[in-house]
Design goal:
With 173 residues, the chain is mostly helical. 47% of the residues lie in helices and 10% in strands. It has seven helices and five strands. The longest helix is centred in the middle third of the chain and has 21 residues, at 65-85. The chain is globular. It starts with 11 loop residues before the first helix and ends with a helix. Residues 1-5 have low confidence and may be disordered.
Length: 173
């Protein structure tokens, strides 16, 4: 599956990091210029599934839909932290449900470079989309509980990761 994404305005180091393929929080792929001169991304999604498909199928691992959603959010926080280690800032990756990929076998989320907002705003939009489009059981409650933490907690990716990890563990017991 090839998905094109216009990347104008992204810093060159983000694209070089993506193309180098060393950051495992990025989906593998290439970047090229189209006929109009726009930079376009072409991800290699072999072995990956979109977050939308992962959540719509309540995950292939047989987890319940709410646990799958919390797990996906935890994986997003983990991947976002890894991107921070590569100096990739908020607003430089896509949180689009169809352009955010999950590796079910490796329990990883993979981002694509793209223009976005702050982490907390992206997370809110992602949760809104999940509630509106996928209608996952318990998604509204999960959304409200996470957003009730407040922007400062949501922007603290390590703190959010701890919170989501504990919550996921509680639900599995």
């Amino acid at each position: 599956m090839n998905t094109n994404k216009k990347l104008d305005g992204l810093p060159e180091y983000v694209l070089k990091t993506y193309q180098a393929g060393r950051c495992t929080a990025f989906a593998p792929g290439s970047v090229y210029k189209d006929r109009e001169g726009y930079l376009v991304i072409c991800p290699d999604t072999e072995g990956l599934m979109s977050l939308k498909d992962y959540l719509a199928n309540a995950s292939p691992s047989g987890l319940s839909a709410p646990i799958s959603l919390i797990k996906a959010l935890r994986l997003i926080a983990e991947a976002r932290l890894q991107l921070s280690d590569w100096f990739i800032k908020d607003g430089q990756v896509s949180f689009d449900l169809e352009k955010l990929f999950v590796s079910p076998e490796k329990d990883l989320v993979k981002f694509l470079p793209g223009k976005g907002m702050s982490f907390s705003e992206e997370l809110k939009c992602l949760l809104d989309t999940v509630c509106e489009e996928l209608r996952i059981t318990g998604a509204g409650y999960i959304r409200e509980r996470i957003l009730s933490l407040g922007t400062s907690v949501l922007e603290d990716k390590r703190g959010l990761l701890r919170y989501l990890s504990r919550w996921e563990e509680e639900l599995r017991q």
